[in-house]
Amino acid sequence: MRLRHVMIALVVVAVALGAFIGGRASVSHTAASVPRPSRTTTEVFAPWTEGDTLSPGMKVTGHLTRGSCWTSSIADSADNDAWRCMSANYIYDPCFAPPDESDVIKVACAENPWSGIEMLDLTKPLAFSAWGTPSGGKSLPWIMQLANGDSCGLITGAAGGTAGMTLNYGCRSGNASTPDKSTEPWTVEYLPNESHVISEVDVLTAWN
């Protein structure tokens, strides 16, 4: 997710949370009025096949040059081939290295699983595709699709909070909390834009 998009998401959080100054948000635990899924589906975004070949059907939307990757992805910490990279003063996170490769000179950056990818040429090769050991169950989903029709991405900068909750996912029409994985399906606390009411919403699909 580009830095400029992260900044937009943070502005949305700030606007939405501004309504709570001097008061508290009301919290509703009424789920969206759609048939409840039996469980949350988990998916893995895999832009590469074995070797350095892109997966069939992967759409390339642009080419970036003079890039560098310096640390593991914040947006998709569950994937140890996902990196936080930069090109032309923009941050791209996550960018995916082809798995099980050495001297990686190109990574695939994506804003979400449906956006297509931008290929980033690196000025200094990555010694290995993987940055280390993924954090496994402690990691947060990169992207979530909710039962209310919204989709949400993890904010990689500072996140806001209200009514004792941290809303660290920026959504198209609101903001959401970290998913509660203790039951199936997972749920989030969801705050629509320009609303005072937080509701519990099921997570249909979570992407890493």
Looking at this protein, list some descriptive labels:
208 residues, mainly beta, 6-stranded antiparallel barrel, 5-stranded mixed beta barrel, 15 strands, disordered N terminus
> Overall 3D geometry?
elongated
Please report the number of helical segments.
Answer: 1
- Indicate the structural class: mainly beta
Distance between the termini: 13 Å
Q: What is the H-and-E element order?
A: HEEEEEEEEEEEEEEE
**Quaternary structure of the protein:** single chain
Helix proportion:
under 10%
Q: Give the averaged pLDDT, no decimals.
A: 84
Q: Would you report the number of β strands?
A: 15
**How is the largest sheet built, in terms of strand order?**
8-9-12-13-14-15
Low-confidence segments: 1-32
How many discrete structural domains? 2
- Evaluate the radius of gyration: 18 Å
How much of the sequence lies in strands comes to 35-45%
Taking the sheet with the most strands, its summary is: 6 strands, antiparallel, barrel
